[in-house]
Amino acid sequence: xxxxxxxxxxxxxxxxxxxxxxxxxxxxxxxxxxxxxxxxxxxxxxxxxxxxxxxxxxxxxxxxxxxxxxxxxxxxxxxxxxxxxxxxxxxxxxxxxxxxxxxxxxxxxxxxxxxxxxxxxxxxxxxxxxxxxxxxxxxxxxxxxxxxxxxxxxxxxxxxxxxxxxxxxxxxxxxxxxxxxxxxxxxxxxxxxxxxxxxxxxxxxxxxxxxxxxxxxxxxxxxxxxxxxxxxxxxxxxxxxxxxxxxxxxxxxxxxxxxxxxxxxxxxxxxxxxxxxxxxxxxxxxxxxxxxxxxxxxxxxxxxxxxxxxxxxxxxxxxxxxxxxxxxxxxxxxxxxxxxxxxxxxxxxxxxxxxxxxxxxxxxxxxxxxxxxxxxxxxxxxxxxxxxxxxxxxxxxxxxxxxxxxxxxxxxxxxxxxxxxxxxxxxxxxxxxxxxxxxxxxxxxxxxxxxxxxxxxxxxxxxxxxxxxxxxxxxxxxxxxxxxxxxxxxxxxxxxxxxxxxxxxxxxxxxxxxxxxxxxxxxxxxxxxxxxxxxxxxxxxxxxxxxxxxxxxxx
Length: 555
Hints:
Blueprint: H1 4-75, H2 79-84, H3 86-105, E1 110-117, E2 127-132, E3 139-141, H4 155-167, E4 171-172, E5 176-178, E6 183-194, E7 197-207, H5 209-216, E8 219-220, E9 224-229, E10 235-237, H6 247-250, H7 255-263, E11 271-275, E12 278-286, E13 292-298, H8 299-350, H9 365-390, H10 402-418, E14 424-430, H11 433-440, H12 442-459, E15 465-467, E16 472-477, H13 479-483, H14 485-502, E17 511-517, H15 526-553
Antiparallel strand pairs: 1-2, 1-7, 2-3, 4-6, 5-6, 6-7, 8-9, 9-10, 9-13, 11-12, 12-13, 14-16, 14-17, 15-16
Helix pairs in contact: 1-3, 1-8, 1-9, 8-9, 11-12
């Protein structure tokens, strides 16, 4: 005969088992739904973040080429001279070379830069081409491709010129292999027009390795990876397939994936497909150059975390039967804590606070989500820093602006308070700019400012140059430039004289300059150094005016 104790234990045990079964079963179903959603968010967040990085790189390249194209059109005096005056074409080309090379040197992965004029009314090799002959070498001037040697329909050799001109818009060209440098390259080209006529094109060749390196570092789950393809499913980068391989020709089961890429679909869900007999899921985003970045992983790896979680829940059910509600509460708090931390972090980000740090270190889907969430925040910080960097650049000259100068002044004062930095400030002011603006117009005055800035940058090429006013520049010298500043000032005077020898009288440069070296005994703040340099500049300006007056009065 069974005792009451046995029946009571059996009743409690039955209730516990029934409750645990219902709650546990519902928990397993809910966990499956949540983890599936987490997996989709993880892959889409990773894909979105890497797409932002690649788009930022492509955007910087596009900005460099756009800046060069704007400068090229600004410096073009007229289409008639470009068509009829070979001497002008040569001088015009020389004027563009330094800006083009500087743009290439400041563009990540740039291997070549070129400006080509319309072969219909200029020589077929007109324009400029500066290229690296070695990956790590410097840019060298090369003879541009003879456009008359190829038919406009020969896209393999001259498609870089005729395709953008025909389309009438800037465009990314398909990657191609450069046998001279033994590298894959991708080009961005902008067609130039003036008064409805084609002036030519401006373009830059980029080492495709800079994109491949970013893609090689993308890993998800155990064997998940990223690849790059175009709308037709042609591989641009893949860890197993060669560039130019059509995915549909490798495996017929991939053809639906090719169609999906062509549709340009994106979102928060994952696309399921089968490749080489393995079921996989994929998230992808379309880049600004039209290519598609895809992040893919086998389904069994994506579901492995879910399966682990289900097993943990089953074990938890057995423990619940033994340890009752207490252990359930502990386990629940342990599961909810990282989600609360993620929720708190999400609210901070929504309020604009990106200084969040997630401490969750669990080795499950929540931990993976937390790690990806933290990486996404870091990518956002980097991208915002890049955008803020654009605010420190002077739009006309390309050098740092007054905001950047004020920031440099603040940082230097911090160094002055904590140590004894060695530096000097050079202040430069363009003479007669008001007269030029009043006489010839502000556009001509802007050209004079650009010429002056180019000379200053050429002289002080290892030091930061700031445009702090309409006609005023400042340079902060340190290290070797500080030690050799007398030579640099002498080179500056020579450079100005050489410019004036070849420039038209109305384009002559007259720039007053002054320098002051920091003295830790007398200069309490940065403004003291700047004031002495500014005073020296005005003394130099007065001396220049006196010399000019003496020359005008001397018969």
